[in-house]
Amino acid sequence: MLLFYSTILPADDARPAYLELKETQSGVYDVTWKRPEIAGKALMLSPVFPTNCREIRGFPAKSLTDMRIDRFQVECDERGVAGRLITIDGLTHSARDVIVKLIFADYSTTHILRAEQPSVFIQPVAEKSQVIKDYLRLGIKHIHGGVDHLLFILALIFLVPGLVELIKAVTAFTLSHSLTLVAAVLGWVSIPLPPVEACIALSILFLAIEMVHKLQGHTSITISQPWLAAMGFGLIHGFGFAGALSQAGLPPTEIPLALLFFNLGVELGQLLFIVPIYAFLKLVNLGIFRINLEYFVSYGIGTISVFWLIERIRLF
To answer: Which partner for 169 in 32, 76, 226, 299 could form a disulfide, CB atoms 3.0-4.6 Å apart?
Structure first.
C-alpha cells in the first residue's frame, strides 16, 4: 500500500507555470511560456496581453521533462506593457501559481499570480511591498508543496526528544539550507538537480532508519545530536529550494529583499507544519500507542523515500 501511495505522491508537484517577457527593442518582447504537463497534457492556461499588443511571430512548441514550452514574439505600441494589465486565462479555476517575469531594458521585475489574483498591473519599477508579499508567499507555497522536505521535517519531529532540541535542529536546518540556497541562486555554486533530488530522498531514508534504531534502543550521533544531521542535510535541501527560486528569478534591484523573504516564507511554512504535529504528539504520548505510531511513521517515510530515491536515480 505504501509503495502504491508513493507512485501517486509527487514530491514537488506544486510546479508553477512561468511567463517571461524580454524586451528586445522598444515595444517588442520575446515571450517564453512554460506550463507543467500532467499525464502528457499541458495545463489549460494561456496569457492574455494588453489590447495594444499582438503576436507577430511564433516558434514550434517543445515538451521537456513534463513541461510544455511555447516561444513567440509580441509587438506593442510605443507604450509597451508598462502601466497595463497582463492576465492568465484559466487561472481562476486552477490551484497552480504562475510566475510572471518581465525583463525591460533598464530593470526587471517578477510577479506571482494565483487563482484569486490572475492579473498583474505592470508598474514602471518594482515595488518593495509587492516583492515582500510575492516572495514570502512563494517560500510558504514551496515548503508546503514539497512533500519530500516536509517528510524530512516530520522525521526530525519524531527523532528529536524535546522541544528545545527540536528548535535547535530546525534552526540548524534553516540556517544551512539558507546558505546553499543563496549560493545556488546567485550562481556561486552550481550542482545538477537530479543528483540533488536523489540525495534529498537519501537524507529522508537515513532519518527513517535512525528513527527505527532509536525505537530499538540504539544510539548514534544523529540520535544524540540531531542538529548535526539537520545542518548537514540542510545544505543539500537548500539546493532543492533553489530550484523553485531560480525558476521564479529575482528582481535585480531587490535581490537581498527577495532572498530574505523567500527564506522567511520557508521558515514560516515549516513552523506552520511543525506546531500542530508536535502538539498532537504531546497529546497522544500514551505508551504502546506512541511506539506503534512511531514504527508506522518511520516505515512509511522509509518506503516512500526509497521509491523516490530509485525514481530519481533513473533521471541521472
So the answer is: 226
DSSP annotation string for 292-303: HHHHHHHHHHHH
Helix (H, G, I), strand (E, B) or coil at 225: coil
- Grid cell, residue 220, equals 548514534
Residue indicated by cell numbers 518593495: 128
175-233, pLDDT tens digit by residue? 999 999 889 888 888 888 889 999 999 999 999 999 999 999 898 988 888 899 999 99
Q: How many CA atoms lie within 13 A of 147 on its CB side?
A: 15
**8 A C-beta contact, residue 181 and residue 263:** yes
Grid coordinates representing 205?
Answer: 531514508
**Are 154 and 297 a contacting pair, CB within 8 Å?**
yes
pLDDT in tens, 106-155: 667 778 898 898 999 887 665 678 778 888 888 888 888 788 889 999 99
> Closest Cα to residue 247, out of 110, 134, 128?
110
- Distance between CA atoms of 115 and 101, rounded to whole angstroms? 18
pTM for this structure? 0.69
| In the block, residue with C-alpha cell 545542518 | 231
Outline where DSSP puts E strands in the chain.
Answer: 17-25, 28-38, 41-42, 46-48, 53-58, 62-63, 67-76, 85-89, 98-103, 108-113, 119-121
The three cell numbers locating residue 36: 507543467
Q: CA torsion angle for 282, 288, 289, 291 (degrees, to 10)? A: 70
